Amino acid sequence: VGKVNKALGVRGDLVAESAAVIETQGINDQKFSEEVLACLPSEQLVISDEEVAKRRDMRKELTFTIDPDTARDMDDAIHCKLLDNGNTEVGVHIADVSYYITPGSAL
Q: Which among 93, 86, 87 is positioned nearest to 61, based on CA atoms?
């Protein structure tokens, strides 16, 4: 015989299913502390030319996020384009957040 500990919602509902994963996997879904928030870059984020030169610049590609509406970040994306030879290029973009994290910080 089982015992209901918490009602999460209707089976199949995205919010309820997400809550079930968070609950069963023991994921911390608490708000970020002020200490963590203070580590975030300002809204006027500027990336140096030196840093851009180290990377493949994909900013001119028409890119779409694949993160769901419920995501707390938008860090996964794809692009598709027709190549001159008739093939289609599909690019998968995963954000490199390590650039923004200082080792030993609250993040």
A: 93
Backbone angles phi, psi at 92, to 5 degrees: -110, 125
Read off the pTM.
0.51
Give the pLDDT confidence score for residue 72 in this predicted structure.
78
Confirm if 20 and 14 have CB atoms less than 8 A apart.
no
pLDDT tens for 32-55 read 899 988 888 777 778 889 988 998
- Give the residues of the chain that fall short of pLDDT 50: none
The b-or-e profile of 5-21 (16+ CB within 10 A means b, else e) is: eeebeeeeeeeeebbee
| Edge-first strand listing for the sheet containing 88-94 | 63-65, 76-82, 88-94
Identify any residues that bridge with 79 across adjacent strands, giving them in sequence order: 63, 91
Residues 50/41, Cβ–Cβ less than 8 Å = no
